[in-house]
């Protein structure tokens, strides 16, 4: 059961995007097939008694094609294909169900979100009062965002394993669509940019909330990213302390091995090299700005966590091409 606020805030295309409103079934079939793909349909026997026309609204915003469909009759739809990506059907009113060719079934009322691709060969069933909003998401962009999230390229396209989005993830999806629709009056450049960003958010929302063939790797990548950020934050806040790799791993909430891997996946140096680089930068900045001229270089090095002055001098020279004393003399002079 979806909360009333979810149903009241459903995303609806404005009337100016009306593409078709007709009682002519043949005309409706041709228009919808042109908008998506050829399909077969079976209308209920009592369709001639109905007074509800087929209604289609459609708009292209940036790279997104958005359409609302209301067939006005109880109908079964069997599309030949759904394009080169993922077709996402959001129920706005009435009842809709979807069956994949392997028998997986999902049904629901307003707020339910169905997913399908060409591999699924779906059949849709619409009640006479049903209205849906459809968005097509390109497979190429889905794959690219998933692999970027994982940190490496996958060996096969992303395939979602469930025919629907769980109800808990429906509201963010509807809010994103509603935001898109509310900005259709924005200047073309702004609208294009917003559409691109919203398309990415829609895809990322599905990747995070619907099981797919890379779910475990995405979850691992997300965990690794959190560990990396925690470690960096801890190091930055404790530069002056005597830190060990175990200290950093403990603060990040992971093992030393996981911590090292997190830094590798982030394209960064090892955790201890990162720590040393930050310390060297702080000391170099202090020397370059002429601060603390009354303090010896050895004391500055000790303050920033270098326990061995000779090793500090060596690392400083490697990093900046001169000794700490040369830096200070050059700035003072």
Automatic annotation (TrEMBL):
Residues 229-330 form the HTH araC/xylS-type domain. The keyword NAD does not apply. It comes from the Bacteria. The keyword Hydrolase does not apply. This is AraC-like DNA-binding protein. PANTHER family: HTH-TYPE TRANSCRIPTIONAL ACTIVATOR RHAS-RELATED (PTHR46796). InterPro entries: AraC-bd_2 (IPR035418), AraC_XylS_family_regulators (IPR050204), Homeodomain-like_sf (IPR009057), HTH_AraC (IPR018060). PROSITE patterns: HTH_ARAC_FAMILY_2. Keywords: DNA-binding, Transcription, Transcription regulation.
């Amino acid at each position: 059961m979806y909360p009333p606020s979810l149903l009241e805030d459903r995303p609806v295309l404005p009337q100016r995007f009306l593409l078709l409103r007709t009682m002519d079934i043949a005309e409706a079939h041709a228009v919808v097939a042109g908008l998506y793909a050829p399909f077969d349909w079976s209308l209920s026997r009592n369709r001639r008694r109905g007074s509800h026309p087929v209604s289609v609204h459609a708009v292209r915003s940036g790279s997104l094609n958005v359409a609302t469909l209301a067939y006005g009759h109880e109908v079964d739809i069997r599309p030949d294909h759904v394009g080169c990506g993922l077709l996402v059907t959001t129920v706005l009113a009435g009842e809709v169900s979807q069956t994949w060719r392997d028998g997986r079934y999902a049904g629901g009322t307003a707020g339910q979100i169905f997913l399908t691709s060409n591999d699924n060969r779906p059949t849709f069933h619409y009640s006479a009062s049903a209205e849906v909003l459809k968005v097509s998401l390109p497979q190429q962009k889905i794959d690219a965002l998933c692999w970027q999230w994982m940190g490496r390229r996958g060996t096969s396209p992303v395939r979602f394993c469930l025919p629907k989005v769980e109800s808990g993830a429906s509201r963010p999806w509807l809010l994103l669509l509603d935001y898109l629709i509310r900005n259709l009056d924005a200047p073309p450049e702004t609208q294009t940019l917003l559409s691109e960003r919203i398309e990415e958010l829609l895809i990322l929302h599905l990747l995070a909330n619907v099981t797919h063939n890379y779910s475990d790797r995405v979850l691992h990548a997300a965990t690794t990213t959190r560990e990396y950020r925690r470690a960096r934050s801890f190091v930055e806040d404790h530069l002056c302390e005597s830190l060990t790799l175990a200290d950093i791993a403990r603060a990040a909430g992971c093992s030393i091995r996981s911590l090292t891997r997190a830094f590798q996946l982030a394209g960064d140096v090892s955790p201890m090299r990162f720590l040393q680089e930050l310390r060297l930068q702080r000391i170099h900045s202090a020397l370059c700005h002429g601060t603390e001229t009354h303090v010896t270089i050895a004391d500055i090095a000790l303050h920033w966590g270098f326990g061995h002055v000779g090793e500090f001098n060596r690392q400083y020279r490697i990093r900046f091409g001169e000794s700490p004393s040369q830096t200070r003399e050059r700035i003072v002079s």
